[in-house]
Amino acid sequence: MIFKMKNKKIFYTVNSFSKTWVLLLIIFIITFQSSFTQNEESKPNIILIMADDLGFETIGTYGGISYNTPRIDKMAAEGVKFNNCYSQPLCTPSRVKIMTGKSNFRNYKRWGYLDQNETTFAHLLKSNGYATCIAGKWQLKGDEYGPYKAGFDEYLLWQISFTSYNERYKNPRVVNNGKQIKYENGEYGPRVFTDYLMNFMERNKDEPFFIYYPMVLTHRPYVPSPESDDYNDFVVASKGGSKATLSDPIYFKDEVEYMDKVIGELIDKTHELGIDKNTLILFTADNGTGHEVISKMKDGKIIQGMKGETNKYGRHVPLVAYWNKTIKPGQVNDDLIDFSDFLPTLCDVGNVKIPETFITDGYSFLPFLLGKDYTPRDYIFCHYDPGKTQYPKKRFVHNKELKLYGNGDIFNIKKDPLEQTKIEEYNLSKKQKVLISNFKSVLEEMQVTNIDN
Description:
Layout: H1 2-41, E1 45-51, H2 70-77, E2 80-86, H3 91-100, H4 104-107, H5 121-126, E3 131-137, H6 146-149, E4 154-158, E5 173-176, E6 179-182, H7 189-203, E7 209-214, H8 252-272, E8 279-285, E9 294-296, E10 302-304, H9 312-315, E11 316-322, E12 331-338, H10 342-349, H11 366-369, E13 380-384, E14 394-398, E15 402-405, E16 410-412, H12 430-445
Parallel strand pairs: 1-7, 1-8, 2-12, 3-4, 3-7
Antiparallel strand pairs: 2-11, 4-5, 5-6, 8-11, 9-10, 13-14, 14-15, 15-16
């Protein structure tokens, strides 16, 4: 009797012990799954959109009134508008800088080319589990393997090595993952690129992805969009130089508004897929607006596009960040942002540790987006040597007030954005002289031998 009781007691003890381990195992599995989910959620999706030839003055939220940009304006109202983002003055220098996080003196080789040995933001994000995709404008030479070598898993691109200058809009000629495609039925390039990216989002919504969308809009030729009344009547010249297709600045408005439309579609797609709370969307542009375009501002100012020039209107571009439920809506940031800052910011977002041997001139602005302590940069250094004869080599340093060129020219860019009046150093205040002295030190530190001024 006693023995049976002991056996019964032993049975209950063992049974209780087993139940405890089962419970612990369940807790472990749940904790592991939760930890795994948190790890995946710590890799937010990233969409970087870069318009082509679009200065800050073209966007409504920056005070522009010539064009309707309701989706970008809403993006800013629900996120952050950066008031002082500066690109390089021209396309390729900006593309190399934003992709590699380096000042051009470190790795810029020639116009229309990216050194395929360079590490890009796509490489770094891909190394941390991101699916990577690029669509739009390439302009970085190489062959059909070039985008793969630059770190992208998939691509749909215009202007890799043989595409015509004029075939970016109506009836585009593109390369899709190594295969050339020529559209012939009135298809519109920006529509094709945007649909491709939304398809990529659908296929990769359950894993972290990085999309880089260097748009073909709003670069000349200025031609009708599908929402223009005369789109169907417009004929594209598939052969010939940049002037083979008629380009009229009157259509710039149509291009800006179509750009705004597709950006809105990408934002809407993140909501449709239920990934909006885990997706950072950044919108910027590669340089100022083309010279043919003149825009009006709310304050009555008239601004001519100055693409290629080193003054404010050649380099001051929009930057808007949207991340639903993560970024506090309605913020305005007045700090300096340089194109080299994008790579470290994207790596910061994706929890990618940048190798110690990797050189970057940028600083992450993610802490500001998250409402954390943030130390903004004091100045921007620019090395400008695009490899095009009409644009002389220049090096300069500036903050929001003063600018020093390598040849010693000083301008008050806050009062004189067109840089029409040089300032003599002896006319500066004591505080300004100290600032210029610091700028000289930066120029010396960034000195290279092949710069004339």
